[in-house]
Amino acid sequence: MAREATLRGLVAGLNDLVAKLYPGCFAFVMATGIVSHAMLIEGHRGWSDALFAVNLIAYPWLLLLTLLRVVLFCSNFWADFTNPRLVFSFFTLVAATAVFGLGMNSRGHVAIASALWMTALTLWVVLMYFSFGLLIFLKKAQGVKVVHGAWLNAVVGTQSLVLLGAAVAHAFGGLSPTIFMVSHWLWGIGLGLYTIFIALFAYHLFFFDVEPEDLTPLLWIVMGAAAISTNAGSVLISTDSGIPFLDSIRPFVEGVTLLMWAWGTWWIPLLLLLGVWKHGIRGVPLTYSPELWSLVFPLGMYAVATANLSLAVDFPLLRLVSSVMIWVAFAVWAVTAFGLAKATWQHLPRSM
After folding, report:
1. How far is residue 112's CA from residue 101's CA, in Å, rounded to a whole number?
2. Which is nearest to 85 in space by CA: 173, 176, 150, 167?
3. N or C, which end of the chain has less CB nearby within 10 Å?
């Protein structure tokens, strides 16, 4: 009887998890994958492989949960998918697929990485035009707020395609020039989207009243989107496309990339200050939520972007900054993972 009760509890818990699955849940894969990549850059292959192994389980598991939600709780899924406040969180699936592909590519699985890039690109096209169509036709004056920064997931998803596309372009043979050209187009689109969203975000943040509940970990995507744009630009600078036109615009890419890194760096002290105000001055307790992975990813991406920028512009001092930030990102990942483990344990059936 006890075993049956435990089984029923697990099934009920799984149903509840699927029904309430957070649309941005793939931020866990993004955060874990980018910290793994950062460790690989730093030369800590053991830590990198351990984190990659976590993603080997997490990525298909979250895909399964998402598919189950679409099938078993279609109304819940559709409610989130047609919510202008939440729809951009689904871009974490695009970014997670690309980041997972980077992990595969760095371990020699180029064919799998190429397939993941094609998958991520397909998802991006669908989400991009659906989300903006939704925003145009179904927005509500009091239901759409950008101060939380989640809309910038669209930028992160776009630039993640640049990172993986440039990495696997040569695997496409005769199509590699096309892939490089598409990667440059996507980088430009990502910059355009960032310009639009950051203007709206800054307007709301600086000129409207901000309450503690507005300051979620999603705010860090503001920095993360700038960091991944920097990283994508650095990769484009460092990768030989073999296309004269793309070579001719490299100075432009270099300049914009450096400016994006400076802009992302500028946000870090301000975001820390907002966190101190919320948790220190206003006394809001810091507890685990899935949104925290949207804080971990920007830290890891900033470390990787700084390392790649130091190589692209030949400025060794940036590598020192990267070395420090890699361990900061790993420490925050570990603390957040502990919070996830604790929250999961607390929700297990008591009979276990």
Report:
1. 7
2. 150
3. N
Report helix, strand and coil shares of the chain as percent, to nearest 5.
85, 0, 15
Q: How far apart are CA 216 and CA 194, in angstroms?
A: 19
Fold classification of 37-346 is: Glycosyltransferase (1.50.10)
Alpha carbons 250 and 339: distance in angstroms, whole number: 43
What b/e readout covers 187-208, taking b as 16+ CB neighbours within 10 angstroms?
bebbbebbeebbeebeebbeee
Considering all CA atoms of the chain, what is the largest pairwise distance in Å, rounded to the nearest integer? 73
From residue 177, give the alpha-carbon distance in Å to each of 136, 157, 165, 181. Answer: 35, 22, 11, 6
- Residues 6 or more apart whose Cβ sits within 8 Å of residue 26: 59, 62, 92, 93, 95, 96
**Measured distance CA(290)–CA(287) in Å, rounded:** 10
End-to-end CA separation in angstroms for the chain: 13
CB 169 within 8 A of CB 194: no
Residue 68 is inside which H or E element, if any? helix 45-72
Integer Cα distance of 120 and 156 in angstroms: 12
Which pLDDT does position 236 carry in this prediction? 93
Distance from C-alpha of 326 to C-alpha of 211, rounded to nearest angstrom: 31
CB-CB contact of 165 with 122 (8 Å): no
Note if the pTM is more than 0.85. Answer: yes
Nearest CA to 301 among 125, 91, 98, 60? Answer: 98
- What mean pLDDT is predicted for residues 261-270? 95
Domain locations in the chain as residue ranges: 37-346
Distance CA 204, CA 215 (A): 12
Question: Comparing C-alpha atoms, which of 255, 221, 217 is closest to residue 236?
Answer: 255
Q: Is pLDDT of 37 > 80?
A: yes
What phi, psi does 173 have (nearest 5°)? Answer: 60, -120
What value does the mean pLDDT of the chain take? Answer: 88
Distance CA 179, CA 184 (A): 9
